[in-house]
Amino acid sequence: MTMALPATAGAERPHHPLAHAPALVLGILLALLIAAALSAATVGAAGIPLERLPAALGLVAGDPATVERDRLVVWSIRLPRIAMAVMVGALLAAGGTILQGLFRNPLADPGLVGVSSGAALAAAATIVLGDRLMPTLPAETLPVAAFAGALVVTATLYRIATRGGRTSIAMLLLGGLAIGALAGALTGLLVFVADDRQLRDVTFWTLGSLSGATWAKAATILPFLLALVVATPLLVRDLDRLALGEAEAFHLGTSVERLKRLAIVLVSAAVGAAVAVSGVIGFVGIIVPHLLRLIIGPGHRLLVPAALLLGPVLMLGADTLARLVVAPAELPIGILTAILGAPVFLGLLLRQRAQIGL
Fold it and tell me: What stretches pass through the bilayer (predicted)?
């Protein structure tokens, strides 16, 4: 199978003037991230006006009548949720950007390699079978199982796609589709045998939510985000070279096999960690790279760092909206990202149809 080289994956083009102003782009995205975080901290069932936020954060003295309640809401509920939204958004968006560069296909998504499906299957098995086999399972078992499921899928897929020391991108894609379909079928089987409560738990988990955010959960995915940030400078130049083709990248000095291994391990760990703490949240990993390419072009030197900032902005915005549209209840964030993301994706697809040869 030959992966098509999209027009968006080549060298940077002059009609993206912001591609030559990385400091400006990253500054704007950082400002948007701060604004989204402030909005998420102040908006909700327990409204905290912006002028009371400094006191709630403990930066200044505040009105004794409200400051204790505000501090409890901000430090126990809002800030852990913001931290998780930022990290989950960054992991999904950067993971999708790297994966699209690796596959040289702007339609590639972390879900394509089966990582999300493997994590969902492990989580469903924990919910349905865990109650019957070991009713006293601790709450931390669910995210641990989901992450383990993502790792098992990655290891299996890598073994299938690697032969004679070479990893086939086409086999990664096709194997990921097959494993994702199998994991989806097994998850459906577990749903079929689940009782009403288990069915509700599995359904809500697979729809994605940040409602269970805690500092402990946020801390568990921080190492994965740091690893992704540290590895980004090692990947971006080689991803740009790979856009020219594997042979061309090799002749330019890129170790293509090392790049494949590093990218797959990083993306799988990043997506697995995000899914483990938030459930399955789709479209972030595919929408963010597309939006950024329209603004700053396809060069990965700026694209990946920008995705690390725009992903959190999108996730914070979606989470804030999810808490408002059906208040005092809360809409699963996966539903919202799908409702908002699918039309945007279709619009981008139609706009770029001529360029990507569909």
Answer: 23-48, 79-99, 111-130, 142-161, 167-194, 215-236, 262-290, 302-325, 331-350
β-sheet bridge partners, residue 163: 166
Q: How far is it, in rounded angstroms, from Cα 314 to Cα 119? A: 23
Cα–Cα separations (whole angstroms), residue 148 to 84, 122, 140, 294: 19, 8, 12, 36
Among 91, 108, 93, which Cα is nearest to 222's?
Answer: 91
Closest to 42 measured CA to CA, from 32, 30, 52, 55: 52
Question: DSSP string of 39-88?
Answer: HHHH-SSS---GGGHHHHTTSS---HHHHHHHHHHIIIIIHHHHHHHHHH
- What are the tens digits of pLDDT across the range 224-234? 999 999 998 88
Q: Quick one: DSSP state of residue 163? A: E
Domains of the chain and CATH, by start: 60-356 (1.10.3470.10)
Quick check: 124 and 199 in contact, CB under 8 A?
no
User: What global pTM score does this model have?
Assistant: 0.86
Q: How far is residue 99's CA from residue 95's CA, in Å, rounded to a whole number?
A: 6
